[in-house]
Amino acid sequence: MSQGTGNKEAQSQIIDFRQIREQKLEEKRRTTERIFFKHLLSVYSVVGDSSMCPIEFIDISEKGCSFQVPYDPDRPWPTDAKDLPLRIYFSQDTFLEIRVKVQNSNPSIEGNRRYVRFGCSIDTSVSSYEAYLQFVRFLRAYSEHSHKDTGDVSVFYL
After folding, report:
1. Which residues lie below 8 Å from residue 131, measured CB to CB, with a gap of 6+?
2. What is the CATH number for 124?
3. Least confident of 1-15, 63-77, 80-94
């Protein structure tokens, strides 16, 4: 066996812990985001005649987001909608509005339900972008530093 071959085999067996850690953090970030999106936030898009449609965020970043809407043949998502306002509700009566530009759409199936998923870029020129940016950064930091409550500490109410 030549030295060159042995080196390649050894190199292919080297584990890059930094890369594994980054993958784990990315998985945790996505899980954390989905928890926020499904249980703590409500997100709607204002379409057509100023009616609000509930949407489900899949992923968000500083420059883009993806969301899905349930597929409904009787009420299809507006195919001509390219520039959309999205409202992120933090309470029942307060929201942060961002504007997105639809870049792509694809059919999807999740939990035996049909959806249409949209990939969008975020309009960084709107005044609310700074608040959105801080929210995305908060989610990233929270996902890196949060811990799962294992019930190991008792809570006493006074």
Report:
1. 96
2. 2.40.10.220
3. 1-15
C-alpha closest to that of 136 among 63, 69, 87, 67 = 63
Output the 3-class SS for 58-109: EEECCCEEEEEEECCCCCCCCCCCCEEEEEEECCCCCEEEEEEEEEEEEEEE
**pLDDT tens-digit readout, 38-61:** 767 788 887 766 788 888 888 889
Residue with token string 């509930």 = 54
Task: Print the domain residue range for 36.
Answer: 15-142
In a domain, 147, yes or no: no
In the predicted model, what is the mean pLDDT of residues 118-140?
Answer: 94
For the packed helices 129-145 and 17-35, what is the interaxial angle rounded to 10 degrees? 120
pTM of the model: 0.71
Q: Residue 155 — pLDDT band, cuts 50, 70, 90?
A: confident
Helix (H, G, I), strand (E, B), or coil: what is residue 117? strand
Contact indicator for 121, 100 with CB cutoff of 8 Å: yes
Total tally of structural domains belonging to the chain? 1
Q: In this structure, is residue 131 part of a structural domain?
A: yes
Residues contacting residue 38 through CB under 8 Å, at least 6 positions apart: 56
What does the alpha-carbon distance between residue 49 and residue 56 come to, in Å, rounded to a whole number? 21
